[in-house]
Structures are given as C-alpha cells and as structure tokens.
Amino acid sequence: MLETTLCFPLRDSDSNVGRDVLLIEKRRGLGEGWYNGPGGKCEPGETPPECAIRETREEVGLEVTALEKAGELTFLLDGDTHSVCHVFRTRSFTGEPTASDEAHPEWIAIEDVPYDRMWDDDHLWLPGVLEGRTVVGEFRFEGGEPLDEAEFVAHDLEWDVSV
Ligand SMILES: COc1nc(N)nc2c1ncn2[C@H]1C[C@H](O)[C@@H](COP(=O)(O)OP(=O)(O)OP(=O)(O)O)O1
Known about the structure:
It is built from two helices and nine strands. The protein is globular. By secondary structure, the chain is mainly β. The protein has one domain (3-159): Alpha-Beta Complex (Nucleoside Triphosphate Pyrophosphohydrolase). Strand 1 (3-12) and strand 2 (19-26) form a beta hairpin. Bound molecules: the ligand COc1nc(N)nc2c1ncn2[C@H]1C[C@H](O)[C@@H](COP(=O)(O)OP(=O)(O)OP(=O)(O)O)O1.
C-alpha cells in the first residue's frame, strides 16, 4: 500500500492577529500546479514522521524538529485503496522557506487558503486540521489513473479521534 505524508508548518502572522500556514505550489508529480502542504511518498523502511521531515527539508528547506499528527486520510480510486496519507502539523522548525524543483513555498493566512486551487477534498478536512483538530477520513474518487484527473465522488469523516 502506498503511504504518503503532508506537513503543515504554522506560525503566528506578522500582524499578530492570526496564523499563517506554509503551503507549496507543486511544480511536478501528483497535484502539479495546485497548492498543498509539503509532503510525498514514504520511502521503503521510512516511518511517516521521518518522511514528512525529509520531504519538508527537500521541498522547502525547513528543518522540522517536532511534529504533531493531525490526520489519516485514505484515498480510494475506483473502489481500491490508492494511498493512505499521514497528515502532520508543526510549529517547531528552523530555516527559511526556499523554492526547489518540486515546490514553490508561500506563507498564507489561514483565512486566505486557496481551496479553489487545491485538491477537491481539501476544503473538507484542512480547515479543521489548521484549527488544531484531528481527523480520520476516507475519500472516494472515480475515473481511473492518475488520481488528480479522477472525479471526487464521496467521503466519510470522523473528527477529534485518536490518530
Ligand atoms: C486526493 O487528495 C489529496 N489531497 C491532498 N491535499 N494531497 C494529496 C491528495 N492525494 C495525494 N496527495 C499528496 C500526498 C503526497 O504529499 C503527495 C504525493 O505526491 P507525489 O506522488 O508527487 O509524491 P512525491 O514523493 O513528492 O514524488 P516524487 O516521486 O517525485 O518524489 O500528494
């Protein structure tokens, strides 16, 4: 089974009236051209936290020092499990976001997250994750590979559960 990760770095905003999340505009691979958190596929023998830390370093140059698990999302394509995505938040990191071949990073105020330029399922679970909640979700897509060209058709969500 394909395991993947997403990592959402958070900071207090410059104006101190809210919070920002670091999103990337993805430059290649699944979801190219859309906004997302840094993340990617787990390598053989790698745990999800190790993957989230490595992908965040490779994609945007931040060194994450602690993670909080925020969710576990199962994506189904035509009835079969396509991937399970482990979602993390972090406020513990060093460095400044830097663009890479894979990702263009951008601090965005939480109320301005561009859900119209993200995966169709994200508006259902990401707002709660950015508020500090935990979520377990299942999202069904239909139409064949690749997943980012399939149609999002249904979902189930459970909030504030152990992840
Ligand atoms: C279906 O809904 C999804 N929503 C969100 N927000 N993110 C998703 C969704 N489906 C997949 N993803 C994320 C999970 C991973 O972070 C990436 C996987 O992308 P990719 O296959 O390009 O993985 P990489 O390891 O970065 O690719 P390389 O093999 O090029 O290193 O998408």
